Amino acid sequence: MLVVTFAVMQMLPAAINGFPFVFFDTEGYHKAGEAVVQTIAGKPAEELIAENTGSQAQSANEEATAQPGNSENGGTFAVPMSRSPYYGIFVYIFFGVQPYLLAFFQSLVVGYAAWLTVRQLCPVDPVKPYLAAGAICALATPLPYFSTYTMPDIFAALAPICLFLLCYSRKNLSVLQQVFCWVTLAAAAAFHNSHILVIFGLLTILLFMSIWPRLRPTFSGLLVSCSAFGAGVIAVFLFAYVAFTIFGSWPQSIPFLTARGIEDGPVAELIENDCEQHGFTICGAAPLQSRDSQHFLWHPDGFFRSSDPVTKLQLSNEDASVFLTAALEYPGMQVAASLKNSVEQFGLFGLYEFETAKRVFLEQAPLFMSEVDLKNYGDSKAVTGAYPFVALSTLIYVVAAFSLMTVFYIYASRPVSDAALALGILILATLVVNAVVCGVLSDPHHRYQARVVWLLPLLATYLVFHINQRRAGP
């Protein structure tokens, strides 16, 4: 019942809004989930190909879900890798029943993970800190906006919590609780490629933490965590293999790295100076109309958006090679740009991107919502511009800053348990690793860091009760 109460608290902003929060990419997840469900149901691949290639769905933020394949790629149909079909299944099924179901499900997952965590830090009386943290997070952090977001972003923040529980508190968990942590961690890796890099970074940090006896994770917990991470990564490749088996073509990704390298400078320099010797498809973009990554990917006149399907597949296949080649030729430029982007990303965690709701309603929502859902979404405060995202963003910054100071003060001046110290290091590391991953690989956006910054107020609240309970004694 406590977990349900916590979850209901996080549902309040969506209830006030009148509809769960939706982003441009939601349509891509919905379509990916629809394709998987229909394939499982036995729909012929030929029909899926015909439906998708004939679709008029052309997002301002993403290429169409399916494009004709390329004989050099081994098939006639290209399936996108940028939107996880695993998360898409949840979006497709829940939206088909009731959009609030996915928001409530995600809020329950967060609530249960938070409950398992508080029991480790405040075992004497976990209820008060749990409810206090739930209220603070619901009122003054991005948590309720991401737990009710029809996006997998919330699972990025669940990764450090699950790693903590598996590596430092596994002996205190029941078998079912361990399974919950394992499945959640594996799902986080399978739901988004950026989560894979964040989890990998945290696992690396855990290895370094093992040097200090006080922070040493249990070997069995680390092994279980690695197995969950591996399962999530394998799931991503399994989807690629199944897609190849069914459609005869390996899944394709949008060339985000190439776009990032153009704006950072190295790829742009490569294109305009010595590209031909490498024989990359991107050489055809010279001279560049703009060095803006968004222009390259999404503008109607941008090189990627305006290219034919075969060229798009080639750009996708060469994405990593182009980025690495340019970075090696201009290492100083790339390092400087990546550092700048990471620092900028670290400080962006407002709710400003939720103000795109009206555009989402006009451009993407009609492509996957029912008439009833579309009407309800159109009447929501986010779409009509009545939701105070700007004012709430200011509050979020103030609370995050105060929480950070509280956390540092407690660690510097108060005795805490080994588990509390380990959790703090994992959460602080998550903030840094997430900023680096998202800042280096994509444009800095508020949404990327806001998805994890709510961990700070949660940690600060738990620590306040933790030191009070330790002071009071058993």
Q: Could you give the order of the helices and strands?
A: HHHEEHHHHHHHHHHHHHHHHHHHHHH
Question: Poorly predicted ranges (pLDDT <50, ≥5 residues)?
Answer: 53-76
How many E-type strands? 2
User: Major sheet: order of its strands?
Assistant: 1-2
Structural class: mainly alpha
Major beta sheet summary: 2 strands, antiparallel
The domain count comes to 1
Rg calculated over all Cα atoms: 23 Å
Strand residues, percent: under 5%
For the termini, the CA-CA separation is: 26 Å
Describe the overall structure.
- This protein has helices at about 1-15, 25-40, 45-55, 85-95, 100-120, 125-140, 145, 155-170, 175-190, 195-210, 220-245, 255-265, 265-270, 295-300, 305, 310-315, 320-330, 330-345, 355-365, 370-380, 380-385, 390-415, 420-440, 445-455, 455-470; strands at about 65-70, 75-80.
- The protein is mainly alpha-helical and about 475 residues long.
- The chain has one domain.
- The longest helix is centred in the middle third of the chain and has 29 residues, at about 220-245.
